[in-house]
Amino acid sequence: MSEQLWTERAPEYPLECDHCHYPIPGEPEESDDGRFCSVACREAAADNSTMTDPHAYKRVATGIEPIDSLVPNGIPADSFLLLLGDEGTRRAELEIELAWRALERGEPAVVVSFANPPTATLERFYQNGWNVLPALENDRLRIVDCYTHRLDDRDAFLDHRNEWTAFVGEAAEDAIIEVRDPSDRRELTNSLYGALDDLEMNETGLVTLDSLDELETLLQDRQVHDLVKDIRATVCKARFVPVVAAASTASDGEYPESEYVFDGIVDLRLDDQHAPDARLKQLAVRKLIGAQTLPQWVTYEYEPARGLFAFGGNGETPQKYDLGNGTQQQPQTR
What we know:
By secondary structure, this protein is α/β, with parallel strands linked by helices.
């Protein structure tokens, strides 16, 4: 958010701290290094530890039209988001597209896969026309493999891959982190944190978990709950790296009811009431802590390469949103 916007929204705070970059609510603490909101910021600046402008990384425009139209100022980067939807709403495509849009922005991504082997996870990108080989070679993508070691005959799986699958597996070999026992929470989280460290993911990038339904088959309900809390604290809140997980509304697990565990919930549904001859796909933001959201359903569809896009009457939500003070604000990117 620009200084101009802060001034418009809070004209009584016209000054910005030269350390934390937030408005100075009272008389500034001044020194030869600048003006500060507090003694703590003044002393930190004297130690040459001035912070990066937080507005540069604290909000994310996903690049996915149906979502960005409902969150006009961007998603807080310290969010743990749940994509909760019916079968057929293309949750998997949305999750993989979120990772691709991060790579497209030049940021790193980590995909934690419980439901598919790494080559199948990478194939999801290719099915959409999104070539991830450069990201693998440029060290911007990691696959945390929580699937392969659960196979009864892992060697048979590797031996029977076709030429393309074998090529992709070899090209991605250095980017794959194998988890031998994904039911071991410590091994799972250590593998994830190791991937984040390898990619130097602080204040940048995205993590996806595919999927909570499959994870629930490995862990008891309470363990899933605790795992989400641990990842939320260590990845989202400490590093300012958003995490996105998907789950089906058909699941019997407790996580859909445990709304306080998630910072944001995006509901996806199939609607046949407004178009009797079609089952329309719609999404809405049920909640998103720390962000302004539009309270409506957006109809969307999917095309390879293009990804998810809004269409129709309620899909024509403007990308700009009136903040209520005569100004309009675009989503901010990191």
